[in-house]
Amino acid sequence: MQHADFAKQRLDILLEMKQLFESWDGTATHGIKVIEENKEHIASLQIFDSFEDVSPFSKSENELLIQVIQKQKLVMYTLRNSKEELLQQAKKVNQKSRIIES
CA–CA separation, 66 vs 21, rounded Å? Predict the structure, then answer.
């Protein structure tokens, strides 16, 4: 495979990753799904990275990668907040259960 083919595939993968994050509806459930789907894309990028004759990322690929990373950080931030909210709700339920048992 030639360098141009690798570069095209890499760019396509980055565009798909960005599109997946842009399709995120803001919920934790969908965020988990988006991250899971993008794991396959990350694995593909890692395979390309392991080839010695592949050129480094172009400026446009770097810009796309930065956008993808920023969007993933936003999703992860939302997931962490959702987890904290669920933990707080679970604590309240446990407290109510203890009061009832007493």
Answer: 13
CA distance 89 to 102: 20
Per-residue DSSP letter, 26: S
- The answer, yes or no, to whether residue 70 has pLDDT greater than 60, is yes
- pLDDT tens digits, one per residue of 75-91: 999 999 988 888 888 88
Q: Return the exposure string of 32-63: e unless at least 16 CB atoms fall within 10 Å of the residue's CB, then b.
A: eebbeebeebeebbeeeeeeeebeebeeebee
pTM, two decimal places: 0.74
Q: Which two tokens stand for residue 44?
A: 């593909």
